[in-house]
Amino acid sequence: MREEFRADLYEIGRLLVSMAEAARTAMSAATTALLSADKEGAERVVARDADINQLFRQVEDKVLRILAQQAPVASDLRMVITALHISTDLERMGDLAEHVAKSALRRFPAVAVPADLAGTIGQMANVADRIAGKITLVLASRDIERAAELESDDDAMDDLERQLYTKVLGPDWGHGVEAAVDVALLARFYERFADHAVNAGQHVIYLVTGESADA
Fold first, then answer.
1. Alpha carbon of 63 to those of 49, 58, 82, 198: distances in Å?
2. Which residue stretches of 108-172 are H helix?
């Protein structure tokens, strides 16, 4: 029974890494579609969100089976519940990538982002990719030092979000209300994507140490 439990935990860990990799790929592809008005690319991101959802369901099913059949306690229970929290954050990261892709589709054949803001959105995408890559490594290695770095990475995303809002709300904004709403929503999607990665990293810290990241 114990060997089966360990095998299930290993499989849950593998699924979490796969979810993180898929969310990272989805956001990268969504950004490319967004900045180039690539309808087919955006549609692929939307369609493949189902794959991330399926991975989430697999994690959920395994967690529920462990709880029902193994009745874990102490550190084992912490590991199982933490995995479920992490999978929820990763699933939401996939949803946010889908939202970016749908933003591209709503404005097709036009490019959804004004040309003078494309660079800032690209920077946000780069930060998102760095953060998603880091949480993937953290999940694979349980490296709590790298997990703690996600907070400062998120600060960079917050700075870029503020830059976008400053431009949108500034006196020189000349792209109209519709574009302002689009940009504000996109900034929020990238910022929340980073936040969920940070949350996942904090869960890893808790898993390894038994203490919350801000304790």
1. 21, 9, 10, 22
2. 118-141, 144-169
Considering the chain, what percentage of its residues have pLDDT values greater than 90? 84
Is the pTM for the entire model greater than 0.85?
Answer: yes
In a domain, 35, yes or no: yes
State how far the alpha carbon of 61 is from the alpha carbons of 13, 54, 56, 84, 94, in Å: 14, 10, 9, 10, 19
Provide the sign of the torsion angle of the four alpha carbons 27, 29, 33, 36, taken in this order: positive
The CATH number of whichever domain residue 155 belongs to comes to 1.20.58.220
Would you say the C-alpha torsion 196, 197, 203, 209 has a positive or negative sign? negative
Give per-residue pLDDT as tens, 38-47. Answer: 999 999 999 9
- DSSP 8-state secondary structure symbol assigned to residue 212: -
User: How many structural domains is the chain composed of?
Assistant: 1
Measured distance CA(140)–CA(62) in Å, rounded: 18
Q: Please give the residue range of the domain that contains residue 93.
A: 2-209
Question: Three-class SS of residue 171?
Answer: coil
Q: Report the distance separating Cα 100 and Cα 110, nearest Å.
A: 15
Residue 215, domain member (yes or no) = no
pLDDT tens by residue, 14-47? 999 999 999 999 999 999 999 999 999 999 999 9
